Protein 1
Amino acid sequence: MPELMRLDAGHAPAVLAFELANRTYFAASVPDRGDDFFDRFTDRFDALLAEQEAGICAFHVLVAEDGSVLGRFNLMDIEDHTAHLGYRVARHVAGQGVATATVRDLCRLAASRHALRTLRAAAAHENAASQRVLTNAGFVPVGPAAPTDLGGKRGTWYERDLAPGPF
């Protein structure tokens, strides 16, 4: 059974493999990370760990039993009990409810471990799968997302209140 884990240095090879294996798939719905991301992966990964250590972000990976990464689920720009949610799942598990279930798990962690009260996420109008994940995980649309929020695409901001209650 896959396990949602806090990102650590030991995950670097599996995260790189995940990003490389799914690069074309991701680029169909979100902006491509670009060659520089892969050329400087170690530096970028170390910077993420430093942001996490500083409490600015909390990065998570969904790890399969074989140690491969099935998805990345991130809480970014943590401030005033609010954070932005970002996520991506591997093509071979897309459409199986993995993203929705893991976003729900992350909502619980965000409230209990990080004392967050609100999560926000943006989804491009063309990204129907992400819109479904957010809606099915209890997020509601709260307004337009500008192209600067979504790598040049228009979309919608979604928000979820993490007040105590059923998840």
Note: The chain has a mean pLDDT of 94.
Protein 2
Amino acid sequence: MQSSKPSHTKDRQKTGHFRHPVDDRPHHPDDDRRPLRVILAVPVVLLTLAAAFFLWLAVNTRPDGDWDQAAYGGIELACALAVVLAGAVGALWLAPSVRRVMRWPWAVPAVVLGVAAVVRWVSSGA
């Protein structure tokens, strides 16, 4: 014979407090990943912004002529730093534990910046 009382009243009798029936839903695994995603977003965003700055610096540096080796050296250094920083984002994202939390759109801007820095480095004519 079934009881006429709803199941949540039985929970109250067993535990001493009211449990909402919606709390019995299965727990989604992505619910716990938000704090970790926020923590991992800090280095990814900072490294991407630094790579963007060095790429901007490399693109906006104009040598005065063929003899301006200092400007060419600055372009190469800025491109190298942009590639290293973009590579750091890519290396961080390649870790399986990070990939589970942060999907590929987080790494795409850094990869694009790294490719653009390589193109600028090759086309600098130094």
Note: The chain has a mean pLDDT of 81.
Protein 3
Amino acid sequence: MRLPLLLALTLCAAPFAARAADTASLTVTFTGLEPKGAINFVLVNSAEAYADKAAPVAADRIAVTAGTASKTFEGLAPGRYAVKAFHDVNGDGKMGTNPFGIPTEPYGFSNNAKGAMGPPKWDEAAFEVSAGGGVQTISMAQ
């Protein structure tokens, strides 16, 4: 009697174990920081979300107390992602800009992608996260 029950429980749990094995983690590390304020950033998984036309996978704000700061995301689906971030040095919750709209606070993108007259394109900032995990280091030095 126990063997059929054990077999049934094992078969029911198999899809959940497969899903857990197919998830990924991603550690994002920001470097070149002045130890004050916070890093505001979003993790996106599509060109639409990168362009702020769809919801991000995650958005976070982490305090900066040293020259580097990190965040690890667990349970991500393997796939293509990008990160957009700025260092809110003065702690006002928004990116500082000059009268022409040019950022006055440090910012960065995954792959350390650089834009010309605006943010880099999705294809320049996007990277693959495979099952198991990935890392991304973003330099915030201007």
Note: The chain is about 20% helix and 35% strand.
